[in-house]
Amino acid sequence: MHLGISEKLKFLDEKPRHKALFLLLFRADDYLTSEELADQLKVTSRTIKTDIKQLKEEIDSPEMAIVSKRSLGYKMEILEKEYENKIKEFYQIFPSTTIESEFDHRVNYIVRCFLSSKKPIKVEEIQRKLVINYSINRELQEVKQMLSQYDLSLVSRPHYGMMIKGATFKKVLLTIRMYRYFDKNASNDFGIPEYSAFFYCDNCEKEKIRQTFFKSITKSRIVFSDINAERFIVYLLYFRNQTLYKNTITLGLPEILFEYKETDEYYLVIEILQKLRNKFEGFEFTEEIIQFLTYIAIFSTDLYRFVDCSKENYNYLINLAEETRNFLLREVSEYLQIDAFDDYTCLKDLLKIMIPISLKIMLNVSDSIDLRYNDFKNDGHQPILRYYMKKIYKKFFKTYHYHFSKREQHLIFLTFYGMLNRIVLEHRKLNVAIIAIDGRLSTQQLKFNLQHHFSEFIDRIETKVLYELDLQSNHAYDLYLCSNYGKKLNIQHNPIYFVEEEMDELQYIDSLKYLFFQAFEYEKKLPPFSFEIQALEEPIKQVASYDYLPLNGNIHLYLNLDSEKENFKILRLEKSNQIEYCLYVDLAIKEDKQKLKMLFNIIQRIVDDSTKLEELSRTETRYSYFLM
């Protein structure tokens, strides 16, 4: 089944960087620039361009190709869904575990070596294991950064080597974190026997342990995600092996204001261990390990029901969860100049996210499962919100000394993105004229679809022939629709949209929905925008009074949401074959969510379709130009 794919992609096994590059492009939903790819793989953009050229030649086929687009970057196109599915199946799990860059591989290998060694390790020993003869200072800096998230440090003793220093439970958290990919089908060979021994278990016995765990959890109110469930099983295997090897572990858990024995997670852990002890050896855990596993269960709980987020279930965690939630809401309100507290759904969902995070704050660790969020770039989606969220994450770290993982950042972003989506734009109803060039009968399907799908936007629809419209001197319509044949005629009525004939119902909906954006009257909320063309005489510089957001390579957004004046200026800068766009936006939001959402919509449309800027002219002044 895999013969064709395996033969096609076999060369990637001998070229790790090309393999990582292939998988990044394969999994990306959109274009990736050479700079983004270089940042992921820890190489230069010039190296990426060289690798892309070679990779193009190696994989180019009728089924698959790498395409490039100016200012957007590179994208992999696969024409057949079946071919795409075979690639996913060939790499066993999606996303694949083989995405690590050479640099990431060395860093992870070094961390695992330190975690599994009972004695200090010298730099020369690490270089020998990695079969390299160059400096690993850059890798060690990354190792120290990773350790800092767990309040651990790398200490060095002259002539002895380096060791990880810190609380044992934090080392255990990082040890499991470095297992990395929590998938039941994943077969992890870490290349370090001492580290792999932490998790060894006969496959048949491991499956029985899994089933025992799943039967217990499905009968409780507790719900884990699939990946969190697999991680919890890895914890069970780790502590079981420590018990079987008669390794006495003192985790060193701190005293915190939290009654863990009052939680349902504690009773679940007790039940699971009791069932495992009845069937297998090695599950006679100490009370401290049971307490620690209760904490892990709370980290893992999927709090999809708000009723579970009570002081009865989580006692003192709720106080800190509400405090940290309110911190995020205040910061979002400040940056976006709106009241984020009045969205009840946002209040609820944020509290669900912050309950497990609050426990980790109490323990002074920034722990998370690895869903490979580093491998996905979504910065083009709602760039303004993403920009301010990054600022808020940094402020949160300064206040609570907690580093949000990529997964947690994604969840928090989605929560606030949902808040923005729930802002319903007010709109007026339009008077629509259907121009019946070929008689009224030919317009019946169009009229039916308009009435059926867009009635909330329409006050009145009238079907008129051209001479009737020409005789009406005082009746103007908000929108004119005409068959595609009308493009050949000199029709002076505006704004006009030509509808292709023989479209099915869904095509009508998709084709016509953008026409009704003008019903929202963006011009009444946003200042008139201006467009200018100037020579690019010097590099683009940041302006102190604005927040600067780079968009899509050659588009630069300068934003002020708390401005005394209102302005929306689009500047096109030209120099030989180089073109840059600067958007200067001054708005006084003043808690006007309608205005904020309109701005977000305009910027998103520009990001999604940069050709709108390329085709913009000085005569265009309506925001519907970007929306239609």
TrEMBL record:
Keywords: Transcription, Transcription regulation. It comes from the Bacteria. Residues 17-75 form the Helix-turn-helix type domain. Gene3D superfamilies: Winged helix-like DNA-binding domain superfamily/Winged helix DNA-binding domain (1.10.10.10). PANTHER family: CRYPTIC BETA-GLUCOSIDE BGL OPERON ANTITERMINATOR (PTHR30185), TRANSCRIPTIONAL REGULATOR MTLR (PTHR30185:SF18). This is Lichenan operon transcriptional antiterminator. It comes from Candidatus Enterococcus lowellii.
